[in-house]
Amino acid sequence: MTMLAVIFHLGNQVFAIDAETVEIVIPALPLSTVPGAPEYIAGRFEYRNQVVPVVDLGRLVLKRSLNEGLSSRYILVHNPSSQGDETLMGLWAERVTETMEVDEESFSDGGVHPPEAHYLGRIFTTEDKEIIQCVETSDLLPENVRTMLYNQDKTSSQ
């Protein structure tokens, strides 16, 4: 069995997201702010009549802003909400330029599990010996931030 992975970069590190969770990859757009949100919430925008919060993966993972290059993109992923329905979340990443098929046997445990980075999943190594870390998008946001973002969106759209 294989997984189709969307590959992206944060600085000189390479990461992957399971393509099954991805709605679409789009160029970066202007964002409106989310008052009171943590600094890694870059803002929000509207996509198909839904307000989509955007996580700046550079700020979340590397603790610094991303380079706003031509290959910086928003990866819109399906995200289960605290109410049980599914919402969209944007992930702002650098060099979102390819997908890759990965055999399930290629995955291994990352070996390091920092408590503040519970969203880091399995790893795999490419033929070029590059280590790629998977990101579990459902674990990116703490429950209090998830509740704030999605409850705020519901009240602002009424």
Textual characterization of the structure:
The protein has 2 helices and 9 strands; from the N terminus they run E-E-E-E-E-H-E-E-E-E-H. Strands 1, 2, 3, 4, 5, 6, 7, 8 and 9 form a 9-stranded mixed sheet that branches. The longest helix has 14 residues.
Percent of residues in helices comes to 10-25%
Radius of gyration: 15 Å
The biggest sheet, with number of strands, parallel, antiparallel or mixed sense and barrel status, is: 9 strands, mixed
Strand content: over 45%
Broad shape? globular
H-E order: EEEEEHEEEEH
Helix/sheet category: mainly beta
> Mean of residue pLDDT?
86
**Based on DSSP secondary structure assignment, what is the total number of beta strands?**
9
Instruction: Flag low-confidence runs.
Output: 153-158
Cα distance, first to last residue? 44 Å
Assembly type of the chains comes to single chain
- The number of helical elements comes to 2
What's this entry about, in short?
This protein is mainly beta and 158 residues long.
Kindly list the characteristics that best describe this protein:
single chain, about 160 residues, mainly beta, nine-stranded mixed sheet, 2 helices, 9 strands, about 15% helix, globular, disordered C terminus
